[in-house]
Amino acid sequence: MSEPLSLTALYWRGFRHGVPFLLVIVPFGLLFGVAATKAGLDLAHVMGFSVLVIAGAAQFTALQLMGDHAPVLLILAASLSVNLRMAMYSAALTPHLGKAPAWQKALVAYFMVDQSYALSITEYEARPQMSLGQKLAYYAGACSPICPLWYLATLTGALVGAQIPPEFALDFAVPITFLAMIGPALRTLAHVAAAITSVVGALLLAFLPAGVGLMIAALAAMVVGAQVEIWTERRKAVRG
């Protein structure tokens, strides 16, 4: 049995695990900076958007609807629906980080992005013996290379976006980011069933207003995944 890692070692472990995501975080941030500037936002608004919201998918949804002159309530509702996955992330992390002090949980919530969640939940499940402090140290490490570079990439995109050649196709970062996170998580039949349900549901409901189809598909995926997990456990019990 390996010796438990120190808090410092776990922080740097999380940091190293987060670094590869810079390959997609940087172009994603650049793309948002470019898009927001072209949409007419000034530098302060662009950076306020990224620093306060720190949620790329929701930011792009809001930006698109703002460009379409949609009502404020619709913009807020669509952005919140896109970000409902964060509520699912929070529920999944609560058994691991729920006993942390309020200020630490506030920081965890603020820095929670798809990448930090995916890395952390995978690490926690692989190392169930980790203490609360160790889990927080790993989480902080995973966030450290990702979030600051999101701000910096957004700033760079807003400042020099006009000089970035269109053939660079920065929008490739969005699908690659999610593929990189989801792939390693498909470890059981329930995970695969949930993933397939979400993909099929999102495609079938693409005609709905921004974010609504994704929300329904996500809920359906959770139901299917949970049901498959129940069936799997029952089959194991019968065989046992």
What does this structure look like?
There is one protein chain. Helix 8 packs antiparallel against helix 9. The protein contains 13 helices and no strands. It is mainly α and about 240 residues long. The chain is about 75% helix and about 0% strand. It has two domains: about 180 residues, no CATH class; about 55 residues. The two termini are about 30 Å apart. The radius of gyration is 19 Å and the shape is globular. Pfam families: AzlC. It comes from Thioclava dalianensis. Belongs to the AzlC family. This is Branched-chain amino acid transporter AzlC. Its main location: membrane.
Keywords summarizing the entry:
cell membrane, transmembrane helix, mainly alpha, transmembrane, membrane
List the helices and strands and how they pair.
Layout: H1 7-18, H2 22-38, H3 43-53, H4 56-67, H5 72-82, H6 85-97, H7 102-110, H8 114-126, H9 132-143, H10 147-160, H11 173-182, H12 189-204, H13 212-239
Distance between the termini: 28 Å
Summarize model confidence as the mean pLDDT.
84
Q: Oligomeric form of this entry? A: single chain
Largest sheet: none
Number of helices: 13
The 3D shape can be described as globular
* Rg: 19 Å
Query: What percent strand?
Result: under 5%
Which structural class should the secondary elements be placed in? Answer: mainly alpha
Order of SSEs: HHHHHHHHHHHHH
Helix fraction by DSSP (H/I, runs of at least 4): over 70%
Uncertain spans: none
Number of domains: 2
Count of beta strands: 0
